[in-house]
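Annex B. Sample input.
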Amino acid sequence: MSEPILLLPQLKPDADVKSGDRPGEWNVQASKAFVNVATSLSYESPGAVKNISSVPTMWARPLTMEMVLYDDQNSLREQIIPQWQGMLAAIALAEIRGFPITAQLLELGELRDEENFAKCLHQLLPDYKGRNLYTLENKHPWEDIYLFLWDKQPIGMTSPTTIVVPAEKGHWQDLPWWDNNEKILKSPKNFLNAKEQALLWRWLDNLNNTLTKYKKEANKEKGDETAIDTMRGLLTDYQRSLTQIEEQKLILSDDLVFFEVNINRGVLEALNRPLKAPERPSCVELVASKPGTDKLPLLIYDPEMARVWNEKPQNIWIHGGKTLASLKPEEFSQLKGQWTNDVQLVTPDELFFPELKFIELENALPGALSPEVDQPLVFQNQRITPLIPLNPLLLDYFTPEGLLSKIKFQKLKTGVRLILDLPLSGVKEDKKSENYRLSKDYDLKVENSLGDQLPVLQVWPNFQKEDWREYYTFYYDGELQDQTFKITYPQARKHHGFKEGFGSFLMYRSEKFPEYLPCTDFDNNQIGLILFPSPTEIRDNKSWHIGVDFGTSFTNIYVNANRQEVPQPLKLNNLQFQVTKTSLENRLNTLFEYFVPENFRLVTDSQALPLSSVLTIRGKDPSNTQQLSPILDGRIYVPDNDRFEPQQDWIKTNLKWDEHIRPYSEVFLKNLALYISALAAQAGVTEIQWSLSYPSAFSRGDILNYSDVWSNVARELEASTGIKQNYPEADLKTGKGDFRTESLAIAQYFADFEDKDLVYTTCIDIGGGTSDISIWEKNNLVHQCSVQLAGRDIFSQFIKLNLKFAEEKFGLDPKDWQGLGSGAFSAKLDVWLRYTSEQWLTKNRALQRRDPNFQGLTRLMTIGIAGLYYYVGILLKVLHEELVEDQEGNIVPVYKEGKITPVYIGGNASRFLKWLDERGKFDRNSEINELFSRMLSKGSAFKDTEEVTNVSKNPKDEAACGLVLSSTKLKGLGRKVKDPIIAGEKYLVNGEEFTGNQRLTLGDSDEDIKEFTIPELIEVPKFLYEFHQALRDLELESITALPGYKMSPETDDNSRLWQETQRELNKTLLNLKGESKDIRPESTFILGLKALLTILGKKWADE
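Annex B, continued. Sample output.
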C-alpha cells in the first residue's frame, strides 16, 4: 500500500480514490473520479462545530453559513450574519430598488442523470436532519435549490437550513451595502431610509410567520421545530435592528414570477414576492402653474437627480412604485410606453433641442417674450436673438410667462448655456415644490445662423377676451425659403398654406391667441420656440350701436357707443400683433395684399373710412368656391393709386350689385362684421345692435338676400366672439328700424345730425351706383326711392370712354386702365378720386376754364346731375297730383306744398359738384345752383324759387351716421304705405301700357316679366331742351351747350341723337326680364337719361 495521504474528511477503508505519483502534480483521470470521491469520503457530521468542513464543493459555503448561524458562540457570526441579512434585504427590496436579481431552479435529482457533475453534487448532499426548516415530499430538501444571479452572475443560493446563502465571491455591482474593496455584503440598515426599513421589517415579519406554518404537524412539509425557532430568532433580531412604523402595511409585488421563476419550495415561498413600493406621490412631477391644464403629469427622469439634490436615490420616487434607484436607464423606454396612459415620462435630453438656432439681429422678435441673459449674446461681433431650444411640451404645463421665468441664457466663451429651472414635487413633504436645474451648452455655429432677414409673422387680433374664438396667424417667408424658419401651429382649427413665386404663405385660424409657435426648418424639423406674451384681457359690459352703409364704391361705419347723443365714425384701430422685426414697407405691403392691414390708411393724412368696397381673394384655395371663410379665403382690400390692379383674378369689385359673385359679397361682409366685432371686443363691448342701409333700387330678392346674409353673419359671430349680435330683419313694407333704406338714413342725418329743417325738402344721397331720394314735408316722409344714376354714370363712364383725356389731364397711364371692366374701372377710378381729386382740383381746376375737352366733361357731368334734379321735379309734380285721405278724412295731395324744395345732397359722388365750379369747390355761391333749381322747376312745372343745394359736411358719412342716431324729429318713417318708384316716362310691361306718372310695381307682381319697353322718350328730350334753355336764360359761364344741338324739345329736330339714344336704351331694356321679385325697379326716365349720357359720352370721346 502506498504512503498515507492527508485528506479532510477521511476516506473510507475501501476508497476508490487513486493518489498521484508525486505531490503537486496534476494528472488526468476519467470523469468517474468525481463519483469515486463522493462514495469514498467518510462524512458523518459535517455540521459539527468540532470538525473542519473542507470539502472543495459548492456545499462548503452553505454548510459554513449553517454552522455559524446555528452556533451563537461562533467567532464568524459578526462577519456572516451581516452578509446573510444583506442578501435577504437585497431580495426583499429588489423591485423597489430595481436590483437586477433573477433566480434559477436547480433540481439535482433530475440533473444527476444528465450531468456527471450534478451526479457528484447529488451524492454529496448534506445531511439535513435536525436543521431543516422544511421537508419536501419524496425528496431530499437539498435536492431543489434556487440559484440567485445579479446581472446574470451567481451571487447566492437558497438553503433548507438557513433560507439563503450569499456566495463568498459574489459580485453585487452597485448594491449600496456591497463592499467592493472587501468583496463582502454588509448590514443594509445604514443604507435604507426609514420607509424602506419599515417595509423590510414587514417583509421579514412575513418570512417569520411563514416559518411558523412549517412547525405545524398538519403541514406535510413540516420542518424541524428547533431549527425553525433558531431562524425565527435570527429574523426577530434582524427586525429589532430596523425602524418599525406601526401603520406600515405589507405590500408585496404583483409579479408572481418577479425573479423569472416561481420560488415555491417550503418556506422559500416567502422569498417569491419582493416588496412592492407603496404608491407615493412622485418626487419628479413637474409642478404645473398653467391654469386649467388637463395634461397628464409630466415626470422628469434624470439619473443625476440624487447627486443634484444630495438625496438617496431610493428616496426619489418616480411612478408606479419605481424610485430613482429602481428605475434603470435600460428600462426607461419600456416603462415610458407602459405608463403612457398615466404620465408622460421624459429625460432632460428630451426637453432640449440638440442645436441652437439664432437670428443675427438684436431684438429680432419684438413681439415675443425674451429670456433673461446675463450679457448680450454675440456671434461674429453681431448681437443675436436665439430661438428658444426647448420642447413645446413644457407649454402644456406653464404659461409662456411662467416658462420664461424659469429659463436663462448664459454667455460662454465660445457658446451659450441655456439654464432651465423646473419646479418638481420634490422629496420634502413640507414643501410645495423643489427646484431642479437643468442646463445644456450650445456652440454658436455658422450653420445654425438664420441670417438677418426675417419672415413676416403676425397675429390678429391682439387681445384676449372670454368667449372670443376668432384668432388668425399669418406667416410669409419673404422669399427667404431655407434661409429662415417656418412655423407650425398644431392647435389651429383651420390651416391654409400656399405659394406665390418663391414666397411661402401660411394662415391659421385658432380659437385662442397662440401661446407659442414651434419653429421648423424647411425639412419640418423643430428647431426652436417663439413664446408669446399673454395679450390684454378685456372685461367690460358696454354696448354699441353700429351703422353700416355698404356702398357700391365705399362702405362706411358709424358707432353710437352706449346710445350717446353724437355718433362717431368707427376708429379702425390697429389690432395687429407683430412678432418679427421686418421692414415697415415689406410688412405693410404684405399685410395689405394677403392679410388684415395694420391700418386702413395708405396715405398718412387720409381717413381710414370709408373702406373701399373691394375684396381680395389672393391666396385662396381655388377648390373652395362656397362657404368662404373670412381672412383665409378673402379679405377687405385697401387699394392705392400705384398698385391697385382690379383686373387681377383675385380682386373682386361691384360686390353690391353683381349677383354672380354673391359668395364674395358675403365674405366681404363677414370680414367687415368680424373686424367691427374685434374693435368692439377691444373696447369692452358685450352687445352690438346692427343697423343696416340698403338702396330702394334693390329688388325684393336683393333685400331678402342681403338681410339673410347679415343674419347668418351675426349668428356665426355671436357663437365665435361671445358678443351678443342683434341683427335687424328686413321690413319690406316700411323700410324702417335698423334695416333701413339709404334715403331714410341720409334724411335722418340731415335732420338730426346737421339739424336741418325738412319743412319741405328733398334729400339725395349720390353714391357710386345709386342716388337715394327722399322727399319731406313738415318732417313727414312724402316719398322715397332709389335710382341707378350715380357716380359711375356721371363721371366714371366718361373717363373710361376717353383714356387719352385722362392721360392728358390727370396723368393716368392708359396701359393701367385699358381692358378693365366697368366695375373694375370704376373701382380703380374711385381710388384715384379719393386720394388725388382734391389736390388736383385745387391746383388745376381753374386752369381748365377755357379748355374745350374739359368743358365737354363738365357738360356731361352737369347733364347727368341736372337730369337727376329734373326727375326730382317730376316726383314733386306727380306727388302733388296724387291724392290721399288724411287723418281727418279729407282728400289732399300727397305733397301739399306745391312748390320746389331745397335740396340736401350727400354721398360719395356729391364731391362731383366741385368739378362743376371753376373754383374747384361748391357752395351756395356756385352758379350751378341756379341751373339745378331751374331743373326742379321745369320737371315739376312749379315756379322757380331759386332754391339752393346744400352739400353735406361729411360726404359719404350720412347714411351710416343716420342709422345710429338715438332720436329723430322725423315722422312717417314706419308708415305702412306702398311707395313704388315713379316712372317718369311712358312704358309697356308684357304689352300693357303705363304712363310716366304711374308707379312701377314690378316686384309686387307674381307674373314674370317677359317684355319691358319704352317705345318713345318724351320727358328726356324735353329735359335736354330745358337744360339748354336754362343755360341761355341764366347766362351761365361755367357750363357750355352741346355742340350741334338744336334748341327743340322735339326728337325730330335732333333725330340722330335720339335715334342712337333709343337704340342704347333698347339694348338696356333687354335685360329687364325674368321673375318680378328679381327685377330691380328703375325709373324709365332715368333709364332714358342714362342712355343719353352714354351716347353723349361716346360723342365727346370721339371729338
